[in-house]
Amino acid sequence: MTLTTRESTAVSSTTTLHTVTRRAISRAVGDLWPDKQIVLGEQCPSVTSYVCRVTVDGEELIAKYSWLGMSLVSILRGAGGTWTEIQEAQRPYIRSTDLLIAREAQNLEVLRALGHPRVCETAGVHDGVLLTRIAAGTTLADAMSACPWETAALLDSALTALGGLHGPAGARHLRWAAPINERSVLGVFRRKFNGLSGAAYLKGLGRDSGLQEDMRLEIVELVKYTVLRLLSLGGAISSRRDTAVYGDLKPEHVYIDGPRLTFIDPAVQWASGPQPDIAKLTGRSLLLALGHPDRQAGQQIVQGIFSTLARHVATQPVYERAGRLREVLTLWLMDTVSILSTCLSAPPGLPLAPHQQALVAQARTVARIVHRASALLTGAMAGPMLLDVVSSEVEHTVGSAR
Asked: For residue range 20-30, what is the model confidence (pLDDT) as tens digits?
């Protein structure tokens, strides 16, 4: 094996994690292909798993490594214990059946057998490292940003591609799939914000983000009241678990290559319907709209998102529409608060993707949106009227947040 590391910089506050992780990836890739030339590329921005590009005899792959199934932000903030404790726990973790990377590889295998949606190819799995081949095309996120007037059609195409997964055939085929509940919107939200640790976590949001202190305190206050409302609203989310969902359906996890869509990074879970997928896809798309440099384009994205939501609600039985909509909106707000808090908690030196940097820059605006929208959900308004009011609120905010 010939190994070359091609990285120009390393950030001092994350140097240890960065170095040890790259060493683990190098060792695993070398074990898989001992006679091939391997070049480790730069780290890809991620707040969850450590991700980087790896070239094996000229073929570029994506390598992913997870520390104890936690986000990198949580690990760097000490949620897994001291660095010595984390390393000691990691050794048995990468050999356990609970290994997140192994479950993701199994998800990919099961989804490929199902045949829809189309997912990226697995190149190898070894010693805690998952290697996948790069999906062809452009991401749904980039397509929406470039052609905001096509947002509704783009979102509909992604959700249509998941129709088989969300239906009875998907439930039958995926009954043996290993769930990745670490990515559950409801589960993540409750883990972050329940109890005394949640209150302490909220209090410290944004301390290392570079925000002015008065703005940071306003954000903390807005998020605190939003969290209290959402914890109450979460009790109304159905406990049924008869629908398989993709689980980590972000616009940057869907690639479009002409008529063909390819999905990456699955986190298969069980829910009462497709609501978690719809909530995450539309909610993360709304954040893209807020960060779009062109105000009109941002508003077009918002309009397309709420058009998709309205069509989804209209396809449901009349007696289920109000409840389904409220659940989607609740999960959307939970996911938005979770990713906002994660990005605000990212320690200096952890690379954030451009859209995550934009989220930090627009944190006060996002906090105001979730605060107002959660207040609407606690009221008596329901159905299409609720959707219209929330849509108008978000569209107005996106139009004025410049």
From this structure: 999 999 999 99
